[in-house]
# Entry
Amino acid sequence: MPRLTRTLTLLWILAGTIASLSYGAEAHIAVRYVDPPLGAWWDANEFLIMKCSAAALGMLVAMRVAARFVERRLRAAALGWSLVVCALALMPVATVSSRLARIGADGQGGIARDRMIAWLGYDGGIVLDKIFLAVVYFLKAVGFSLLAGLGIFAMVLAAINALQRCTAIAVEPGEH
Amino acid sequence: MMLTWRMLILFIHVTAVIVALGGSLFSTFALAPILADELAAADRLRVSRRVVRRLGTIVLSALGVLVLTGLGNVMFMGVITLLLAIKLVLVAAVIVLAVYQYGTIGTRIWRVSAAGPDPSLPALQQRFRKVGLAVGALVLLVVYLSLGLTRTSGGIILAGVR
# Structure
């Protein structure tokens, strides 16, 4: 199970990085030159891939961190069931975390853009600023999804706890 | 209007805090001392191991609900302040600590005490209590920060409730 979660984490990091950079740099235009239908599909779906990657990555990191604090015997069950619940909750969590990640943009963003333009010139600075915004947005969505993942993990652990207690009590009738 | 999604989520959020914090406080400061006074060692162990298990289910569920409704609250608030960011980090720490308390120490207590009193139990129970107190203190800090958030964004909240 830890190997699976590690592999999934790496895959979502890769998908998220590609989608964020592409969304920021508007790379779908380049794809359209090579393969117009693929470019159109990528343009329509890159944001969805970006927000789903952020949600999945956040929840996976949360699960992996929290699982380290669970006793070894329980760990596999807790990770496995959390993975199932998080997979089911992926779309709602992605929707909520992407909406939350939009909050908080303020005047400070202009300072970063001005510095980038001063550093790279107008054209390069604007592109870099868009990539910067996409990456910050992605990281914020990961952070909110991480919290959701921790909540889901806690609830799954509670359910496992309750089920094991019922099993144990059924096995030990003297405990009633 | 009193019955809005925002009010409902806030109600569930506050209820979850009460359940999580109240359960832990009751167990630590009311139930445990009374059990120590009133029951013999073997009976006390039998009761307390079941309390640990059941409380784990309740507290962890409440914390899960707390986080998910908390994210809903942030969405309704529409602002992320430094105070809120600190609060969210603390909430993450609370959950990790609670997972350690019930997922590791509580499970060990349950397993070790299955066959009756064991020499390793007092140390485990002591650690369980310490981690529980740390979780309670952090939750209280989170509640305090929440008061700060409510006070600083009171206008927004009132506008939402109306």
